[in-house]
Automatic annotation (TrEMBL):
It is a single-pass membrane protein. The keyword Transmembrane helix applies. One of its GO terms (molecular function) is electron transfer activity. This is Cytochrome b6-f complex subunit 7.
């Protein structure tokens, strides 16, 4: 059962990381000269 929890944690954390990366890239592409 610990394996299932471990897999779920890895999946959720990787999804969060991917979401953050995509959001960051989108912001950089959307306004590269907005500083």
């Amino acid at each position: 059962m610990a394996g299932e929890i471990f897999n779920a944690a890895i999946l959720s954390s990787s999804l969060i990381l991917v979401g953050l990366g995509l959001g960051f890239l989108f912001l950089k592409i959307q306004g590269p000269e907005e500083e």
